[in-house]
Structure formats: C-alpha cells, structure tokens
Amino acid sequence: MFMKSIHVLIASALLLLVSCSAGDSWVRVEGNKFIDPQGKEIVFRGLCFSDPVKLVRDGQWNERYFAEAAAWGSNVVRFAVHPANLNSMGWEEHWEETYGFVADTYPVICTEIGFCLENEPGAHIPVISTEEYGKHITQYLEKKGISFTVWCFDTRWAPMLIWDWDFTPTTQGAFFKDYLQSVGKDASK
What we know:
Elements (H helix, E strand, L loop, with lengths): L1 H17 L9 E3 L2 E3 L5 E2 L3 E4 L2 H6 L5 H9 L4 E4 L3 H7 L3 H6 L10 E5 L17 H14 L2 E4 L20 H17 L2
Helix pairs in contact: 1-3
C-alpha cells in the first residue's frame, strides 16, 4: 500500500515538471534561461524537502506532504540525501523502494551528495561516511541514469570538496574529482 501511494505522490508532485515536456522535447537551456518546448521561459520555484528516509520515519512521506507543497505553488521539489540515512537502510535494495523508482518514470537530479570522514573539519551527522558511500552512491546513480551534484566546492561548508583556494581536494574531493574526470574521459570516447 505504501508503495502505491508513494507512486501517486511522486506523480502528483512532479506533474508540473513532466508537463513541461512535449513528445521528445524537453526543457532546454538558452543563454541563462530555461526554455520549455513551446519556447517560453521557465523559472523553477520550489521547496527543499527533508531526506526521504527521515520523512518516512516521521510518518510524513505521504500524499498530504506532497499536496501541500503543490498548494504552496511549488513547481519543483528537491530532496536531500544524507549518507547516514542511506547507510542505515542497507545502500541499494532499500534505495530503490524508497526513492530510486522515481527515476524509472521522471527525470531526477540529486542535488546534494557528499561525505566526510569522522575526523575531518565540519564532520557532523548525517554526512559522516567514507569513500564506500561515494562508490555506492555514484554506482547507483549511474545505473539509474540520475544526474547529480556534489556538495560543496568550498573551503568551509561541509562536507567540503577542497581544503584551500588552491583547490587541494579533501578526502571526498579526491574521490569525486577522480570519478568525474574518469567519467568525462569515458563520455568523450
């Protein structure tokens, strides 16, 4: 029952984004603007949702939550995906049933992944993890065709990708720099 209602919720929440497509045409970028298939400018305005695992634990991953976001006028939503929560689920089998299935139907961008070691500056729950998280999350996102961005290309906002303004990579920075460069080389072949 939970999964059926979650499909309805996601479908409702993302209906506005899907309605921006027509046939094989999708939202595109022209200069500094997002343009819909009819040539009209789109400005995405929305809400940042809590981590889906937290929402499930709080009993709030439900139609009411999504309906309220739509009632506020949101045309896009963003989910945080915290390493601690993903790690507690047991990586990919539960990721799929909790939120990964959305990418089977809708375009998805994971906008804030990242980790730091327990002894690194800025370490805090829920971002404490290791390179294993990096390996598992990137493999999963690639397998699902989910776009992503890594938090944060800054020297102070944790989990940081760089130690200094010479761009010396942190632990996660080294992992994601190697990963992005290797994927970029593969894509150019």
